[in-house]
């Protein structure tokens, strides 16, 4: 007999079912809201903490105990503090003509104070304090030996073997651990914000030693600062002394060369640094200028006299001026008497003769004056010519001297430069000597260290608080890491997000560990939380298709042990309670369990029907649940998949809707078997079961993908065995509706249910 091809059945349209995408659109939350994924769900975080509360509490308690033990084992430490005030230094140059060798940025306040803090933590200061207080007297070997733990030698040998002989030999050549570093571990430098104050503290097991060390640190720091200043001026003075000796030697050498050159070239300079030739040249030049001026003046007067202008001659001769006055007086007298006498009057004739004589004398004196002017002119010209000749001669001499003075001037400039350098260095040495004697200090002790009056460390209260808080934090981190690494399904939202389909129902975990009682809970105690959950599932399935609940429902899971059989029985009970006739079919031909839950035998069942050993009416059996019949799995078959592919399955499914309103098929798990895929194609709808905190995401997703690849119609999923008040739901399953009676009757009813289940 050739079995039918199940895919052909799957390709037929399900008249009773909604399209999967339409159903998902009605039931699933809208997708594409990516912003919601980025939001932090505080409820989920709180649920994670609740699930791992004992892990968090255990880790917190462990860390708290460890911190407590370590704190109590720590030796007490005492801290003493000194407060210093550090003022800025005026970093003036030692020499005014200092030139920086390279461009450097100016030191600001931050750099200066940071430098001072590092000086306080320097090994040189630590060594001074150690030597002053005679700390660590046997620090060469004793301290190193005491610091080594009991396993240090073994570790060193192991390290030598791992690194090799060469690395071991090179390690032996390394230096010892400095004692200063050990000293600095107890020291703390704390600047006071927005001030020039700094607090220097030191911690020690001995409070008196802590006080002594702290005060000694301040004293040595101030002393080190003063010594640094003295050392800097001493270095500058030594440097200037060397430079002064060199400058003096150069000055003497250059002066000797200058004097020798002047003697050899016969160069004589006066006090005003000019040579005799230059002075003579200047004097002759002035004399020539004066002579030329006199000659031009004499020439002008002479030329006027030659042209008949007697004014100059008269101005030069007093006789002519006297004769002119006498002539003017006689002429005036003559004109006055001419009014009385006639011209031929003897008196008038005499006056006229006197006037003629004076006029002759005047003309004679004018001629003599012209000769005198000519003589002056010639004398001035001769003087000018003579001086010009001397000037030309002196020019030649001066040029000769200047040629010789080129070397002289060079030597003279060298002498002047060396002399200026020598005098400047001499002045700087005096200034450095004065600066070195100034003991001004920019560091002041504000508050000296006092004897500690309480324990600094360990701070028991703080350590215990930090241990508790840190333990809780680490516990929560580990809890969230476990939650992140745990891929089990724990929330409805996680299941919906994983499979992208709705969760039709959530079934709480039964309080009883008896699986038979859990499977019959919907029948034995309809008012229980489990009964209410299955009635809610029934309602969801009524809206799963256009025609209501699917006629043939296939129930499966990804892995075994997830409660498929109990789901089938309780789901059938819920539909039977609504008046429907339900047929349960146990198609798990490999490991059947429905007959055990309903307390039936399994001598004849589905395997007999599929192998044509029995008819459908022969294998259908009634149960204690009203309106619920069952076909058990029957004897185990060696080839279950081939049997499920036979066309006998289609004959069985024809019982709907003639004899039954609904058929519920219980199938094996999906992973590793083909049975569930075959059965999903015979059914109108498939319901995928996942177990709370048991089903893992990878197998569950793989199972769902296999159903999709087999063209199965998966209408949704169901989450089972949810704990009371399960995380992620916001409500508890610890409830049931009361339809009458009181609490006492409820308790009696529960006892009756337990007995009936037994």
Characterize the structure shown.
This protein is an alpha/beta fold. Among the domains are: 6-28 and 503-728, P-loop containing nucleotide triphosphate hydrolases (Rossmann fold, 3-Layer(aba) Sandwich), CATH 3.40.50; 276-436, Helix Hairpins. It contains 31 helices and 12 strands. Strands 5-12-11-6-10-7-9-8 form an 8-stranded mixed beta sheet, sandwiched between helices. β2 and β3 (197-204) form a beta hairpin. It is elongated, with a radius of gyration of 65 Å. Its main location: membrane. This is non-specific protein-tyrosine kinase. Residues 555-680 form the AAA domain.
Question: How would the blueprint of this fold be written?
Answer:
Elements: H1 6-10, H2 20-27, H3 34-38, H4 42-51, H5 53-73, E1 78-86, H6 109-120, H7 123-133, H8 142-147, H9 152-163, H10 165-172, H11 179-185, E2 187-191, E3 197-204, H12 207-265, H13 276-306, H14 311-316, H15 318-337, H16 346-436, E4 443-447, H17 460-485, H18 492-499, E5 503-508, H19 515-519, H20 521-524, H21 529-542, E6 552-557, H22 564-577, E7 582-586, H23 594-597, H24 606-610, H25 616-619, E8 621-622, E9 628-631, H26 640-644, H27 648-653, H28 655-658, E10 662-666, H29 675-682, E11 685-691, H30 697-709, E12 714-722, H31 743-757
Parallel strand pairs: 5-12, 6-10, 6-11, 7-9, 7-10, 11-12
Antiparallel strand pairs: 1-3, 1-4, 2-3, 8-9
Helix pairs in contact: 5-17, 7-11, 7-12, 9-10, 12-16, 13-16, 15-16, 21-22
